[in-house]
Amino acid sequence: MRTTVQFILVFALFFGGAAKADRVSVRSEPISPIQDATITDSAKVELGKQLFFDPRLSLSGVISCNTCHNLSLGGTDNLKTSVGHRWRAGPVNSPTVFNSSLSIAQFWDGRAANLQEQAAGPIEADVEMAMPHTLAVEVIESIPGYRSQFAAIYGNEDVSLDRITDAIAVFEETLATPNSRSKSLRVIPCLKPAAAWVATTGRRLAARRFKRWASSSRTTQAPPPRAALP
Ligand code: HEC
């Protein structure tokens, strides 16, 4: 009986202490866990989402923000360097737009202070969307659906670069990835071994399979010739 009580006490002290230490260490971390996005103006988020996916913001009419920050590919284009207007390759690759609102500055060299300031850049950059800002505003203004959305959100139909980039930035703030699937597996005790297996052996097996696939003859064939560009 006494040993049982002692055991319970030691157990409680040990794990209670460990849990407390865990909480303290998380709090003192310089990087805190990512929180869910809080949406205060869903109409503006929707407008920003439409603009993010709209190729009419580019001079060619075929490139949108999503071309280089494909939300189905982790917010990037998975290319060595991004390909923009007239299929020209730029000098650097595109960072993900997921969780970018948490960065202290935007772009690899941090030259934009925040997401709104950042969004004006790619619209006009000639290796990205190559669209003069005045023309971008005129195009968006010419679309009645957009005009009524701007009126509902900003109080009047005026379309401006500031409003376009504001809406895009507010949409981007919702692109947060608070938790990973493998983490939620870990909190269910019986799934702990499965999660550990996926993280170690599973990952190794997948890497080996990928290596074998990458070195197979399929990838050594020459790619078909590119069609001539206009
Ligand atoms: C042609 C490809 C391309 C297009 C189109 C494009 N981007 Fe980018 N984006 C990039 C590249 C490349 C960078 C990195 C540039 C640098 O750091 O100099 C970047 C950087 C960013 C960043 C900074 C992220 C970080 O972590 O620093 C954000 C945010 C972003 N783009 C949002 C947008 C939005 C919004 C649009 C549409 C208005 C857009 N991008 C259109 C290629 C593109």
Per-chain topology:
Layout: H1 2-27, H2 42-52, H3 65-68, H4 115-124, H5 133-141, H6 144-154, H7 161-172, H8 181-186, H9 192-214
The structure holds heme C.
Heme C is lined by residues 52, 63, 65, 67-69, 82, 84, 90, 92-95, 97, 100, 103, 106-108, 115, 118-119, 122-123, 128-129, 168.
Describe this structure in words.
This protein is mostly helical. The chain folds into 2 domains: 131 residues, Cytochrome c-like domain (Cytochrome Bc1 Complex, Chain D, domain 2); 37 residues, no CATH class. It contains 9 helices and no strands. Helix 2 crosses helix 7. The protein binds heme C. Heme C binds next to helix 3 and helix 4.
Considering the chains and any ligands shown, give keywords for the structure.
230 residues, mainly alpha, Cytochrome Bc1 Complex, Chain D, domain 2, 2 domains, 9 helices, globular, binds heme C
**What is the straight-line distance between the termini?**
87 Å
How many strands, which pairing sense, and closed or not: the largest β-sheet?
none
Q: What is the 3D form?
A: globular
Secondary-structure element order, N to C: HHHHHHHHH
CATH superfamily of the largest domain: Cytochrome c-like domain
Helix content class: 40-55%
Structure class: mainly alpha
How many helices? The count is 9
Instruction: Give the low-pLDDT segments.
Output: 9-21
Proper CATH architecture of the largest domain? Orthogonal Bundle
Strand content: under 5%
What's the overall average pLDDT, rounded? 85
Report the C-alpha radius of gyration, rounded: 24 Å
- Beta strands, count: 0
How many domains, as an integer?
2
Question: Remind me, CATH topology of the largest domain?
Answer: Cytochrome Bc1 Complex, Chain D, domain 2
